[in-house]
């Protein structure tokens, strides 16, 4: 609850409310590198929540260790090609992927996804074909940021970062 200067309580706006819920979902994650949460909303109706982690019934990274792989991507920076190394865990299913797995296509049509972190390239591709019309995130993911923004623009999906958002106390684990 937010309190204004006169001491009266003020309701949170809908963006803050749903992003708070995404952060609360992220607290279920066992990932030692980053907790990510996502929620699916249609209008003002919450349709699903998800977080990142290993498949059900499989040891997660806190039990079995991260399963990291290195990938390389060619990027053009100032007219020069450069090879960029990326590292990712392949044991973990991302929050956005879990959200899409556990919600119905009909619920996603015209909906908004609130996610604690800007989607990676793979998740952005899945979201682009999922039926959602808006993706709202808090923390940027610089490795894929520009190409994800461009793809969302081309797809006509509203893609925006929540400016000035502060996660609820005790919910933010990032590396």
Automatic annotation (TrEMBL):
PROSITE patterns: CYT_DCMP_DEAMINASES_1, CYT_DCMP_DEAMINASES_2. The keyword Zinc applies. Keywords: Hydrolase, Metal-binding, Zinc. The keyword Metal-binding applies. Residues 13-159 form the CMP/dCMP-type deaminase domain. Its cofactor is Zn(2+). InterPro entries: APOBEC/CMP_deaminase_Zn-bd, CMP_dCMP_dom, Cytidine_deaminase-like, dCMP_deaminase, dCMP_deaminase-rel, Deoxycytidylate_deaminase_dom. Coiled coil: none annotated. Belongs to the cytidine and deoxycytidylate deaminase family. This is Deoxycytidylate deaminase. It comes from Paenibacillus gansuensis.
